[in-house]
Amino acid sequence: MQVMRAVLFDYGWTLVSFTYPSTALLGAMEQARPWLGPNPPPAGWILDHVLLPLERGLTQMEEAGQDYMDYYRAAWRRAGFSPSDDVLWRIMDLEQSVWDRSVVVAEDALSVLEQLRARGLRLAIASNAPFPPRLLHRQLRLNGFSERVDVAVFSGEIGQRKPAAGFFEAVLDRVGVAAEESLYVGDRFQEDYEGPTRVGLRALLCTQLASELPPPGIPSIAHLADLPAALESWP
Predict the structure, then answer these.
(1) Which candidate, 56, 28, 26, places its Cα nearest to that of 44?
(2) 10: which of 140, 150, 186, 200 fits an S-S bond (Cβ 3.0–4.6 Å)?
(3) What is the CATH number of domain 6-18+103-232?
């Protein structure tokens, strides 16, 4: 068995969780209303007819591999508005800044990253996320992740999603470590265990924030804080 040199992490529901920030989004849309021209709809209407449908359709959008700006533009058009792309970017940037502040960093996530880095391991965040990469990387900076990992890669940057082999191969290329020397830590069986193990990574599921328990026999930990000790006894 190769020596472990790198640990790659999923992001949402592994390192962080989210709660839909309705009140803050209403405030943001109130700020954005003048950008929509004369007689803009109330902020609550925008939330109900644009942002909530956007959120509900996100899973299907991700699976289709659609460009997020196209998806965002279509959502506004379905609601009867056709803002310029410049205005759409301003609104999206404002909306995503609300999500930046709504992130709940998992207990012990930052300290575990620090412990692993102190051991000399290469660390990466490698996650499915359709949003514009610069906004995602801003969220990582604001929540303390950027300075604690060597690489952060989202599916929208490479055009492939977990569990595709190409996703993991692209991430490993950026990390600069071979698959057999790397461990992937996530919360979902297909994306975060089957996907990485198919290309030769070792994998471990963390159930701390997961919505489902892994199948019997799949290596797992209950809390991120258990990871350093688990690595000590890893075969």
Answers:
(1) 26
(2) 186
(3) 3.40.50.1000
